[in-house]
Amino acid sequence: MERRPAGANLAGLRDHNAALVLGLLRASAEGGSRVQLAAQTGLTPQAVSKIVGRLLADGLVVEAGRGESTGGKPRTLLALRPEAGCAVGIELDRRRSTILVLDLAGTTLRRRSVDIGLASGEPERVVGALAKRVSQAVRAAPDGAKVLGVGVGCRGPLDYETGTLHRPAGLPAWDGFPLRGLLEESLDVPNVLLDKDTNVAALAAPAAVSGSTAYLHLADGLGAGLLLNGAVHRGARTNAGEFGHQVLQPDGPQCTCGARGCLEALCMAALADDDPQTAARWLGVGAANLVRLLDIDRILLGGHQIFASPDVYPRAVADQIAEHLPEPEWQSVRVSLTPAGASAVAVGAAQLVIDSALGGI
Ligand SMILES: [Zn+2]
């Protein structure tokens, strides 16, 4: 399949610098002045004025009052117009899918759960049925909102570049099937992206520009999505984040991957004994390893096992990190449930499209 850049440009958003300006305005609740934007981007004030003029003309930003002045006349603040655009996010699971629409500020405008999944039938029929429901969501987008595209979050392994699944367990017909390509053909939208569910879920929370976040997903298995210095880390084969298969006990319980004593197997064994405390402690040990390896400063937790014991996991993971790091006060790590809850994958899939179109944060 032909490779093409992942981004989609809006009219008027022709270059990286415009995306940079929009990214800063998205990250800032109170907006920013042209002078601030020039200082933060390193662009000249003239270049910023030109970009802002174009974004104003396109309706992507608005003038939003006056800010503090450091002398001279007060500065006009600029803010993103959340209703100027939206994206569709899909969590494509085995039996069900969640389809939602997100505006540019990350507010969910519409959310539907449908009985369409990878195991529902032949791939062509599944994609056809899904495209029909997605088209309904696109048609229901608010008047005047430009639909930037559709993002799909799906269990791996898969290839982000080619938009295909790679040998999904128990679903041979999907191996190498051009899922993204067929959706693109079926939908009238500028951009379709396919990524691992854990990768997109990491995007479902407001991120610090320079920070590194790990999203840990404990459900039927255990995986991680990594946002390193604000960018999704996928690895060469979109196969980074196989966090659950680090071996912590070489003679431990058998794992689905064939090895023994993987973190995932240890968590699952504890959960099979109805012991979320022990599962949470193991998860914390693995999280501490990850923090030491990558200097992560924020951990988000999600997946149905986490939400089944929401008071247990954040505390146990934070405790294990504090216990295993040599200087926990210096290397402080925030641990919390994902703010997007059970919709984290679908929200993150829409966010991936918005980031791709408007400049990542
Ligand atoms: Zn394993």
Automatic annotation (TrEMBL):
<comment type="similarity">
    <text>Belongs to the ROK (NagC/XylR) family.</text>
</comment>
<dbReference type="InterPro" id="IPR043129">
    <property type="entry name" value="ATPase_NBD"/>
</dbReference>
<dbReference type="InterPro" id="IPR000600">
    <property type="entry name" value="ROK"/>
</dbReference>
<protein>
    <submittedName>
        <fullName>ROK family transcriptional regulator</fullName>
    </submittedName>
</protein>
<dbReference type="InterPro" id="IPR036390">
    <property type="entry name" value="WH_DNA-bd_sf"/>
</dbReference>
<dbReference type="InterPro" id="IPR036388">
    <property type="entry name" value="WH-like_DNA-bd_sf"/>
</dbReference>
<dbReference type="Pfam" id="PF00480">
    <property type="entry name" value="ROK"/>
</dbReference>
<dbReference type="InterPro" id="IPR049874">
    <property type="entry name" value="ROK_cs"/>
</dbReference>
